[in-house]
């Protein structure tokens, strides 16, 4: 398809014509050509992966031209806020990055000085400006991991905190425990349970203040976040064996933790029911539920105090 036809198809997908659509179509045409992809919706449809760096109008145009999408796992989104996209030819390994030049925004007015609205001027200018004035095109090296390839999921594991399943190696492992990214605070969406973040403020040196709570007895730790995850998993599943699988420890080790905690705390932790017609099970005792509630409370209070002192001392 020629530029006009590709732009018309892109506008149908996006809903309206804008400068970003023009830029995205031309960016795609240049990237596909340089990567050696000539039939992205036909013979080359399984040979192409596109990496976009911005969630703006141009991205819809790139999807329209290339046929790549997040759902097909042939479009990858890197939230860099840059008007750029990289095109990877899986067949020969060649990859090119196309970056829209910032100066092209100013140059657009030179092409259509009679158009007062700068966005309208850009829309028309981007249609006719020479490619070398619009883009910086460079060869790049992209090594794609097996879990990022299209196809069926390479694996599924449950998060030890929220219980939700994570696909394609997106989990974060702390010791023997798998957590989803939000729960581990890696994504920074909310405070994670394993390493309790006191605040997410960053200093000029990129340091972060974090805090962690545990309880010691006899000179050694015996209760902390890992044990909390195990107990809450037992509460969810009604089974020690299922809880052990969730937090990725052997059943015998889970039992060892329970017995050690019971000895130190002086209270029963789990009530077990033998198997039978309806099967066995395990439930937390009222004593440990009360203890967990108090632990959660002191952990929350500790984070709040740490936040307060951090802001006070560092002036944030």
List keywords for this structure.
elongated, 316 residues, two-stranded antiparallel sheet, 41% helix, Arc Repressor Mutant, subunit A, 60s Ribosomal Protein L30, Chain: A, alpha+beta
Structure description:
It is a single chain. This protein is α+β, with helices and mostly antiparallel strands. It contains eleven helices and 15 strands. Helix content is 41%, strand content 20%. It folds into two domains: 3-148, 60s Ribosomal Protein L30, Chain: A (2-Layer Sandwich); 154-316, Orthogonal Bundle (Arc Repressor Mutant, subunit A), CATH 1.10.10.10. The strands form six sheets. The protein has a five-stranded mixed β-sheet. Strands 6-7 form a two-stranded antiparallel ribbon. The radius of gyration is 28 Å and the shape is elongated.
Summarize the topology.
Layout: H1 3-14, H2 19-35, E1 48-52, H3 57-66, E2 75-77, E3 84-89, E4 95-100, H4 103-111, H5 118-128, H6 131-134, E5 135-140, E6 156-158, E7 165-167, E8 172-174, E9 177-179, H7 181-184, E10 197-202, E11 208-210, E12 214-217, E13 220-224, H8 225-237, H9 240-246, H10 251-265, E14 270-273, E15 281-284, H11 286-314
Parallel strand pairs: 1-2
Antiparallel strand pairs: 1-3, 3-4, 4-5, 6-7, 8-9, 10-11, 12-13, 14-15
